[in-house]
Design brief:
Largest sheet: 3 strands, mixed
Structural class: mainly alpha
Length: 163
């Protein structure tokens, strides 16, 4: 129904929002692109600048989490994916020496402390606890594994049609 409504809107008003692209890959606007392409409707695009795939994942998750029509399953999944991607970004950036006050800590303790900061911040952004963010990360990893073995299952789970 939402796709049909989007198609009707684009046919009537044109494509109002640009398609977001990173390195030639559509990261937002897949449906708008398909509709415009099928009906030869002109559209604009916005080239996004990110340093890594994980930064793209974080942007996509934040963008999608701002949508009203998100199922609870999709919301949990996106929060988990965002957390895992932000951890990866943080781990790469920590190749620099840690601040003086953190140098005495064991590397694993420091890694856990920094991961906790990420989960606390994401939890605050989404009005949930940091431990819930970490649980959602496990949930998203499990769904990714299901998606590898049974690709048709993931959309059913995330849409809420399966449970």
């Amino acid at each position: 129904n939402e796709y049909n409504q989007l198609e009707a809107n684009i046919l009537e008003d044109g494509c109002r929002d640009p398609i977001s692209i990173w390195r030639g890959i559509i990261i937002d606007g897949h449906h708008r692109y398909r509709i415009c392409h099928e009906h030869s409707i002109p559209f604009s695009y916005s080239v996004m600048a990110f340093d890594s795939r994980d930064e793209v994942k974080v942007w996509i998750c934040r963008n999608q989490l701002g949508r009203r029509n998100l199922t609870e399953e999709a919301r949990k999944y996106l929060i988990g994916v965002q957390y895992e991607a932000e951890k990866q970004i943080g781990f790469r950036s920590r190749q620099l020496p840690p601040p003086l006050y953190e140098r005495s800590q064991h590397p694993l303790e420091l890694q856990e402390k920094l991961s906790r900061r990420t989960s606390v911040r994401i939890g605050q952004e989404n009005n949930i606890s940091h431990s819930t963010v970490e649980k959602y990360a496990s949930y998203s990893k499990a769904l990714d594994e299901i998606g590898k073995k049974e690709p048709e299952m993931l959309p059913k789970i995330l849409s809420g049609r399966l449970f």
